[in-house]
Amino acid sequence: MNIARLLCVLTAATVLAGLRAGPATGQPNYDENKVPDYTLPDPLVMQDGRPVTTAEMWRRERRPEILWLFEEHVYGKPLPAPPKLRFEVFDRAGDALGGTATRRQVRVHFAEGDGAPTMDILIYLPNDAGGPVPLFVGLNFYGNHTIHTDSAIRLSDKWMRPSKPFAIVDNRATEASRGRSERWPVELILSRGYGLATVYCGDLSPDTADRFDHEVIRLFYEPGQTEPAPDQGRTIAAWAWGLSRAMDYFETDEAIDHRRVAVMGHSRLGKTSLWAGAQDERFALVISNNSGCGGAALSRRRFGETVGRINTVFPHWFCDNFKQYNGNEDDLPVDQHMLIALMAPRPVYVASAVEDRWADPRGEFLAAQGADPVYRLLGTDGMAAEEMPPVDRPVTSRIGYHIRSGGHAVLEYDWLRFIEFADQHVE
Ligand code: GCU
């Protein structure tokens, strides 16, 4: 093929890909009047058309079916649990944070041998608990050492996405990275009787499209395989898998009440906390903060970020099959209200921010509300609000929701709501 013809073919391919991706390359829609008409799949109707009429039928038939649909079309098949995990508690301090807390750092080895992949869990527990404590667990974006200035936290040596605010130099954390994240009010959480555990997401899969050879995902390849199959999980699947491995550890630690663990995540890591909570029912409460497209927001609304845009800019997050729905959301057999329904009857909390239009706050509310019939079928209250609540007026029914003032972030306001919600719903 000569160069001119090759260029012509490449241009045609690019134009086609652009058309398929629809608004991926155009301006995002922020106009409520331009949201297309759409019909959501009914969480209480089986794919073969049978209505789901009992809690038993939900549990035995529809729930597994929806989970399978999300695996097949959105997040990919999960990585299997490894046959052997080894927990190496390499730091155990009873006098952390001025004597108020116990700190543990646990290295989880996913396979035998020195070169096997690992992740590090950082855990703080309040010292005045007087028994096993409930805790919040969430992945962080730039290393455990960023969540607090405590100099005993091991500095991550893993690959990191470039970031000036987090003092990442040449894709590595530096001493100056310590305590840079404002998203984790550790003392506040502990003062309310909860522990906090966190893991750097990059321990599980680096957040970049060109590194699928990452060791955790590779651990589960067939001989000769070099990248995940179209229906196999990629980065979000690996991240969610890591949260379950953290839960495996909590089950072994007597200081932790593993029946009262809330999984929380922000943004791409909020998409992940939802997927982790959907798959792993050991999480007693699931919290999504500003998770948007591919998280709590309805895909069919195409408001702010769209399926086409997310799959183009972050081709490594979802399974390849999800790309079939670029600009083609109405063909999806699921929408994100069904992901939230997979938490039922456990409490679930969706948090939006009014200026975070990219994440489509209304779409997040509507998805939370769309899970309501499943919660009611299972005999709990669902979403108490019939309309989207005003800014800063949380809804605290079993499906909780708030839209706070301000932008895309995790603020103390959010944490206070999560803690109050956990106090109310996690017995
Ligand atoms: C981008 C992306 C979002 C994601 C966010 C984040 O804005 O488009 O889908 O939630 O990053 O993770 O911060």
What descriptors fit this protein?
Rossmann fold, 427 residues, disordered N terminus, nine-stranded mixed β-sheet, single chain, binds alpha-D-glucopyranuronic acid, alpha/beta
Polypeptide structure, described:
- With 427 residues, this protein is α/β, with parallel strands linked by helices.
- It has a single domain (61-425), classed as Rossmann fold (3-Layer(aba) Sandwich), CATH 3.40.50.1820.
- It is built from 12 helices and 9 strands.
- It has helices spanning 3-21, 55-75, 96-99, 186-191, 215-218, 235-250, 268-279, 307-313, 336-341, 361-370, 372-377, 412-425; strands at residues 86-95, 101-109, 118-126, 133-140, 195-200, 256-266, 285-289, 348-353, 399-404.
- The protein has a 9-stranded mixed β-sheet with strand order 1-2-3-5-4-6-7-8-9, sandwiched between helices.
- Strand 2 and strand 3 (118-126) form a beta hairpin.
- It binds alpha-D-glucopyranuronic acid.
- Residues 267-268, 292-293, 305, 310, 358 line the site of alpha-D-glucopyranuronic acid.
